[in-house]
What we know:
The protein has helices at residues 4-14, 19-26, 30-38, 45-55, 59-63. The chain is mostly helical. The chain is built from five helices and no strands.
Amino acid sequence: MLTFADRLRMLIDELDLTQKQLASDLHIPTSTLGGYVQGVSEPDFETLKILAEYFNVSTDYLLNYHTDDIRSDKEN
């Protein structure tokens, strides 16, 4: 299963960006973005939304979250 860091690295590579350029575009410290890419930290909700908008993807995509994978208690 892909992690947030995996998805972020893929998107950065697809757009042929550097982490420095992306951090500059998003107005966040390069070290903060590096933590996201390395998987040692995760963005807050606001930054997650900014990343999704920047890459034109959903937050669910970034988080590798699929609602059809969830079963409600009523189904048990």
